[in-house]
Amino acid sequence: MIPLSTKMRPSSLDDFVGQKHFMYKGSLLYNSIKNKTFDSAIFFGPSGTGKTTLARMIANEMDAGFTEINASTTGIKELKEILENAKVKFFGLEQRTTYLYVDEFHRWNKLQQDSLLKALEEGVIKFIGSTTENPYFSINNAILSRVGHIYEFKRLTKDEILTVLNRTLKDREKGLGALNLECADGAMDILADMSDGDARVALDALGFIADNLSEGKKIDSDVIGEAMQRRTTFYDKSEDKYNLLSALQKSVRGSDPDAAIHYLARLIEGGADEKMIGRRLLVMASEDISLAYPNAITIVNACVQAALTVGFPEAQINLAEAVILMASCPKSNRTVEALYAAQSDLRSKEIDDVPAHLMDSHYGGAKKLGRGIGYKYPHQYGGYVEQQYLPDNLYKDGVDYYEPSDNGTEASFKKYLQSIGKKK
């Protein structure tokens, strides 16, 4: 049986949902596809965000040959056959370019990746590679330099997932419209929330429900929880989600470990996943703890990564460690306050240029332009030397964004800055 997520792949660019930071009517990517000038690209981002869907639509729009393979199941031998066929089409009577889409491209080793180089240089193929890993770490530089365009796909928003789900419920040809399914108020909101920005997860869960829903029963939160194998208490009322996360953060900020662990327990018992909780904990480590205990972000990140690795129920132990640690250690919000103050000045003032002695001087002609002249290298002066770093007008105004607290480790930073005359 064909999964619902496959059936509902849009065939038109205008029906594509998500990735509005680069894919919208009139965008450079959209126009390159419509103008048939699209060349090669790498798509990277989480699963279920539209990478394969967009690759297939591009091939359709370009009126070109299209070959789709998965790097986990295709080796050098099969790839050579594909490239040879593409070469015949390109240099033969057809004179037709082939678009090669390689899913999970990061799974190929260097030799396999490099086997594409000649075909790319000759124009025999146009290449689209998709990966869930950062291409700058997982893909050879030789490939990156020849492809050029790298597009980062982001998780779909709740509203975008809802658009996909509601379209599916109404579509009588490819979707579930002919079934006339009855949905309880807010049911699709819960499914969109629990899908974590993954359209494939949302659609396949909805397809599973539609195939197995008892006659006369409506889709409600209990049905969705059963399909997703997770509790839905946390998602039944959207305001509860934000209230509990807010209460957790404020309890940590207020150094109340008992209240903090209480709200963590309520989040877990209500069905919140480790990703959602983990994201908030990582923010708290920098926003509320910061330099009062700089190791907090490192420890919390380790706890969150451990939670993601082991999954529930054991993940709750890792998350509890992070929460108790942050609630029990010194607090400071001075780094975030410094950032906000600097951003406020950028939005409200005319800021002078970077001082000339701080400008890059590692190129020919820099000295003629006065770049880098007079810069004092602090390490030649024992680690610190007095000189101007702020733009002229901010320096003259005596701008002071960062005010270190007397809490925890930050107190030692304050003492050092005072010793060199940077803070009073």
| H/I helix tally | 21
**How does CATH name the architecture of the largest domain?**
3-Layer(aba) Sandwich
Question: Termini distance?
Answer: 71 Å
Low-pLDDT stretches are none
Radius of gyration: 27 Å
Within CATH, the superfamily of the largest domain carries the name P-loop containing nucleotide triphosphate hydrolases
- Counting helices, strands and paired strands, the structural category is alpha/beta
The main sheet comes to: 5 strands, parallel
Number of domains: 4
Average pLDDT, rounded to a whole number, is 90
Major beta sheet, strand line-up = 2-3-4-1-5
| SSE sequence, one letter per element | HHEHEHEHHEHHEHHHHHHHHHHHHH
What is the CATH top level name of the largest domain?
Answer: Alpha Beta
Question: What's the helical proportion of residues?
Answer: 40-55%
Instruction: Give the overall form.
Output: flat
Overview of this structure, please?
This protein has 424 residues and is α/β, with parallel strands linked by helices. The protein folds into four domains: 18-152, Rossmann fold, CATH 3.40.50.300; 158-229, Helicase, Ruva Protein, domain 3; 236-328, Up-down Bundle (Zinc Finger, Delta Prime, domain 3); 351-419, no CATH class. Helix content is 50%, strand content 6%. It has helices at 4-7, 28-34, 51-62, 76-91, 110-114, 117-122, 135-138, 141-147, 158-170, 187-194, 199-212, 221-228, 233-236, 238-253, 257-270, 274-289, 295-310, 315-328, 334-348, 392-396, 410-419; strands at residues 41-44, 65-70, 98-103, 125-131, 149-152. A five-stranded parallel sheet has the order 2-3-4-1-5, sandwiched between helices. The protein is flat.
